[in-house]
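EI: anyone free to look at a 195-residue chain?
SC: sure, send it
EI:
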Amino acid sequence: MRIGILGGSFDPIHKGHVRLARMAERACSLDQILFIPCSRQPLKKEAPRASAVHRCAMIALALSGKPNWLLDAREIERGGVSYTVSTLESLKRERPEDELFLLAGEDSLSTFARWRKPDRILKLASLVVARRMGAAGQGRFRAPGGRIVFLRPAPLDVSSSAIRKIILAGEPLGALVPPAVEAYIERQGIYRRSR
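SC: here you go
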């Protein structure tokens, strides 16, 4: 099987994540996509604002009706700092015959050299990168053996941090998150207070 892996804080999951998954699914003929929320990202100073329970609930709502898109909570269950290489290694042990595709926004490439064992990541999975306005471009990044795919057109240029600011300001989200996720955020009162 061809398995897409989309990791991150998902704080909250938004339509940019969904569009990236849909584009990668088509471009790479993926059989399944795993959405893997992190426990804590190593290159971010702050922990996610929403609890792991809320982030997983929002992901599950966003994936409803998409049977080949699955929530995988292994990083949350493992706890501590989440490293992509550890997750890919565990997936490869479980699914040695499967081909792995790591889905990421282009902005991630600017820090990719600082990720834990980036060379090992590139041996375990092909990178599938969504273009992002203002991000470090593909001209500054090369993967050995052509194991990188740049998606076109660009997914929605939206970020979870921008969504949190909109919520904190009491402004409407418009179409930035799936409707079920917006209703959940409203019902649970998530992101209403700043730290």
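EI: The helical segments are 15-27, 52-63, 74-78, 84-94, 118-124, 160-168, 179-188.
SC: 👍
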